[in-house]
Amino acid sequence: MIPRYTRPEMGQIWSQENKYASWLEVEILATEAWAALGEVPKEDAQAIREKATFDAKRVEEIEKETRHDVVAFTRNVSESLGEERKWVHYGLTSTDVVDTAQGYQLKQANDLIRKDLDRFLQVLKARALEHKYTVTMGRTHGVHAEPTTFGLKVARWYSECKRNIQRFEAAACGVEAGKISGAVGTYANVPPFIETYVCEHLGINPQEISTQILPRDLHAEYISSLALIATMIENIATEVRSLQKSETREVEEFFAKGQKGSSAMPHKRNPIGSENMAGLARIVRGHVMTAYENVTLWHERDISHSSAERIILPDTTILVDYMLHRFANIMEKLTVFPENMKRNMDATHGLIYSQRVLLKLVDAGLSREAAYDLVQPLTAIAWDEGKHFKGLVEANEEITSHLDQAAIDDAFDYHYHIQKVEDIFEKLGLVED
Known about the structure:
Layout: H1 8-13, H2 16-36, H3 42-51, H4 56-66, H5 69-78, H6 94-130, E1 135-140, E2 143-149, H7 150-175, E3 177-178, H8 192-202, E4 205-206, H9 217-243, E5 251-252, H10 272-293, H11 304-333, E6 335-336, H12 338-345, H13 354-363, H14 368-385, H15 389-395, H16 397-400, H17 405-411, H18 421-428
Parallel strand pairs: 3-4
Antiparallel strand pairs: 1-2, 5-6
């Protein structure tokens, strides 16, 4: 991933240096496991622990000859050792090292994403509680529907984030795994104890069954969970973008002193952060298809998944880390304009209360069909002529024969629509700490 979208800590996890360091740790732990079984002299395992090292440039140099990265790596490590070098990679196949180390790297990446998700959830919680009763226009199909609150919008995103955390944790458990089971997964030349020992010391899960590699449906599920996180962010960002339109202006991304919105138009304040999220979400979702195609491999393994994973695993985790961090900042500093929200509610001349008038008439004894046929023509006049719907209702003798002024006033009170907000927040567990 390009540096622009790479946060330093996540970038370091996917660095060549950390990859080789993870490979080396797997190799060292494997020799220590053999020593625990009495198959390798303990002093040799200790010497490997103390002396084994690598040089990334030297590995690349050797790989030009071997055309095999793991062979190049083990040869470079052996150059730092004495006679004990013979135990390096003993009984292992390349992917025992690569997949297990990758599971360890994914665990490191997931620990960062967990922190990101927790912070993002807390930001959403705070903004939801802050605007719990900030009344705003609910829209369906882009058209005014009925009043809601901005807090309820954010509460919906809070709930979505909680679901994404649950999915992520389940999927992360699957890829935080290792396998040291040999060339076709039979443990022919390496006992299961080695796998268990190495994985336990790395803090990852020994895979219950494998071939030469870990099952790739695990990685497909994992990338899918990250794509849902990215899509959640895009979902929220799209709402921010829509509500920041000049004719709406109910929210606005924080605009710093000295920030510029356009090289040509000095007045511009654009939702560039949210637009950035939309673009990056497309990249993350694009990696899902690749992850799914990596599931189907020949027999006990082919290498077609490898080149793709060198791109999609680092890039997806790097992007989701970046997106969660940046968008948490955007949401934390998001400017909300309650007065504009109330102003926009009246833009459709009171039509947002049409269902309340309809139901009041039904409660007064009219059939639903009769009430609907009585109300709809008035809504058409309000739409077409710009007259206020409440005035049309008050001037309609048939309606006023069933509803007095108090009933009409009550039908046009937005508080009715938000009276269950507290119940919804309690159901979500959204309460002040």
